[in-house]
User: What shape does this take?
Amino acid sequence: MTYNLVVVGGGPAGILVAMRAVSLGAKVALVERAELGGVCINVGCIPSKALIATSRVVADARNAKHFGAGAPRDLDVDFGAAMERVRHVRDRVAKGSSVESLESMGIEVVRGDASFVDSRTVKVGARELRFKKALIATGARPKPPTIPGLVDAGYLTYETVFDLRACPRRFLVMGGGPTGCELAQAFHRLGAHVTIVQDEPMFLRQEERDAAQILSNVFAREGMELHLNTEVTSVRVEGGAKVVCLRSDDHESSVTVDEIFVGTGRVANVDGLNLEAARVEYDETHGIVVDDFLRTTNHRIYAAGDVCFEHKFIHIEDASARIVVDNALFLRRERLSALTIPWCTYTDPEIAHVGMYVRDAIARGIPIKTFTVLMHDVDRAITDAEEDGFVKIHVREGTDEILGATVVARHAGEMINDLSLAMTAKIGLSEIARVVRAYPTQAAAVKMAADAYESASVTPRRKKLRSAWNRLLRL
Amino acid sequence: MSRSDTELLARLQRAAFDYFTEYVNPANGLVRDTSRPDSPASIAVVGFALASYPVGVERGWMTREDAATRTLTALRFFRASPQGSEPDATGYKGFYYHFLDMTTGRRVWHCELSPIDTALLVAGVLTASAYFDEDSKDECEIRHLAEVLYRRIDWRWAQNEESPVSQGWKPECGFLHYGWEGYNEAAVLYVLAAGSPTHPVSKDSFLAWTLTYQWENLYGHDFLYAGPLFVHQFSHAFIDFRGIRDRFMREKRSDYFQNTIEAIAVQQEYARRNPLELVGYDASCFGISAGEGPSGYMARAIPYGPDDGTISPSATLSCVPFTPDVAVSATRAMIDRYPSIACQWRLPSGFNATKAWISPGWFGLDQGIVVLMIENHRSELIWNLFKRCPHIERGLRRSGFRGGWLA
Assistant: This one.
C-alpha cells in the first residue's frame, strides 16, 4: 500500500501534520519510536510552564505583604508535590495526542525505529511503508558542550530535570538562553540558590539589549548569582558536591553546587534514519536542510520542527504543519518566510517578540523608529505592581507600518499576540490608536504606543493649522 | 542666567579644577583616579587634567608656564613609559592601561588596556597641543610629543579584525570579547580612530557602530537612546557637535547636541515619574549615570535600569552647555536640599538619598567633565581648541560628518 503521507516523528510537528492531512482525506502513517508528544509535551514547554506556574505562586506569596496581605512567615514549598503536579499537567495535555486519539482520527500509528530504504520508502522493523510524500519531524536532543569533568560529575538537561524529586540546595545553570533563564528563575523561587553562567555580555543573546537588561536587574534583585561574560572551564566532584570552575577573561573562580543544568547545545535527531538513501542532506549544526517551502533536497520529503529549525517552539510547528500539508499534498507554494512568528521567554517578566529587530532593519537599510511605553506608565501594571518592562513597537520611519515589536511584561506572551495579529493583517499604528480597549488592562500599553505615534506624527505645520482653527473658534 | 547662577558655576568649576593640582604627581603628571589615598592614576583623568590646564590659564588660576610644565611632564612620561606585551607595562600598541601606579606609572590591578580611556587621554593631549601654540621650547615640545603619542596608537589593531573597536585587551587573555556597540560615550574614540594618519580604523567602523543605534520615542521625546546620562556628555566635552551631522543624524534631522538635549528631558521626565519611588527624585533632582553608589561603582541607566536611587550630581551639572537653566537650577536645588554633597563646592561621584549615603571623596572624571562642560558653556574654549586640530576634522569627515562648522 502507498501512503499519501508518512510522518516520521510523533512530536508536535508530526502530529499536527498527520492530523491536518488525515482531516483532508489523506492516507497517513505516523512513525514514532518513543512517547508521542515529543519534547514540548514531555520535557519541554508544557512541564516547564507548569513548574513556572508554581514558582510564580511562591513568588507572589512571598511578596504578599507588599499588597497588604500577610504572608506566612515560613512559606513551605513542597517540591515533590510541585513536580507531581508537573507530571499530572503533562499527562492531561498528552491525552490529546495519545495513540488511541490519533487512531480514532484515522491515522495509522506505527511504533518503532524508522529508516529510509530509498527516496520513496521507509522501513519500520519488518514493515516497509511506501509513500508519495513524507515528513521528517524527529526533533532534536540535548548536546552538552565538551567540558572536562562534566560527564563524570553528572548533569541535568531538559530531558531529565523534570525527574528531580527534591529541589537542589545549590543549582547552577549553564546558558542564559530562554530555557536556562526560565528554569533558573523557577528553581530560585522554589528555594534553590541559583547561579547562572552565560558566556555572552547579556542574557537572551537574540533579544533587545534593554529586555535583557531588565531581566538581569530582576534576577539580581531576586538574589540569583549572575556570571555574564563567563565560561565554564571544568567540573570536578569534591565531597559529593560539584565544583564548577569559571573563567571571565583573565579572572578565574569556582562555584560549588549540588546540581548542574545544561541549557546549551542541541543536535538534530537524524541518527539511524539513513537519510543518504533518501538523498536528504543534513549537517551537524542546522540539522536537515530545507528550503522556504520546507522541502528537503529530496522534493518528495519535507521536514519540520526542531530537526531543521532555529525557532523550536510548538506554535511554529503548528504553522509549519499547515505549510507542509498544503505544499506536499495540494501542490501549494506556501513559504515559511511569509509567516509572522511571535515567540516568548516565560521568565517573570516575560519577554516576547515578533517581527524584525532594530538591528535587522538597519542592516537591511530600512529606516526604523521605535515607540516605547514603559509599563510603569500603564495603570493596570501599577495596580498589580507589575511595572518591570515595556512595549516597544518598531515602525518603518515616516509610516505607521509595524515592522516588529518587543514586549517585556508579566503577561508579554499574551500581549504580543495583538501585535502579531496587527502585523499579519497589515494593521498600522494609526488603526490601533482607534481601537477602544477595556480599561484598565496591561495591553493598553500597545494603544499608548500607538497614541505616541499619532502624537509624534503631527507636523509643526499641522500644529499651527490646528491652533489657528481653535483661535478662529474663540472669536 | 542670573548673576548668582554665574557665580555658582564659577565656584563649582574652580573647585573641580583644583582637584587636578591637588591630586597630581608632579614628577610624572599622573593624576589620581579618586581622592582616596591608595588610588592609582586613571589615564582618562589625566586626559581631563591636560584639557583643564588651558582653562586654568584662561581663568587666571595658573600661569601659562606652569600649565605648560605640567603638560610637558605628563607627555614626556607617556612618551618614555614602557610599551609592550609584558603584564606590567604602561601600554601597548600606543594604547595605555586604564589604571597606572601613581609613582612608577606601571599597570595596576590587572586592568585592561583601554581604547576608550586612551581616547579620553589623547583628546586631552590634542587639546593641550592646540592651546600651546607659541614658539617657546616647551610649547614646541608639547606639540611634537602630542603628535608622536597620537600617531603611534594602532587603532586598527584594536578592532581585532572586526568592525567595532574592542572594549579592551589584556596580556593574560587577549581582547575582551565585546566591542563598543550601541550609542555610548565612544564617539570621540571613533572620531580619533578614524582621523589617525598612521593607523586609522577601517572605513566602515563608524558606520558599523551606528548600525547598533536605537532611535526611540520615549516619554514623548524622539532621540538616540542611551541609558546613562554621561554617555550623552563625555564626547561632547571635546567635540562641538552643534550642527554637524553624520549619516544617521542627517536621516533623523537631528544632531548629537540636540540629541543630548532630548536625553536630558527624558532623564528629567523619568525622575519626575520616579517609578521606583526612590527618595529625592524629581524634575530638579535627576542625573542617573555612571558613578559610585552604596553598592559600588556602576553605570546606572534609565528607564530600564539599573537604578538604585543614586544620583550623579556632576552629570546633572554637566548638562550646562546643552540646557543651562535646567543644569544650574537642578544643581542648585540639589545642593540646597543636600548641602553635604557640595563639600568645598566639589561634587561627589554619587549620593543616594534613599539610603542616606554620599560617596566619600571625589572622582577625577567627575571633576574633569565639570571643568570642561562649564568652560564650554562659558567660552566654548575646549570646543574651539579641538576644532583647530586637523586630526579631528579628518576623523569627523571620514566618519561621515558634514555641515555646521565643518562646511
Remarks:
- The domain at 3-406 of chain B is CATH 1.50.10.140 (Glycosyltransferase).
- The mean pLDDT of chain B is 96.
- Residues 18 and 376 of chain B are 18 Å apart (CA to CA).
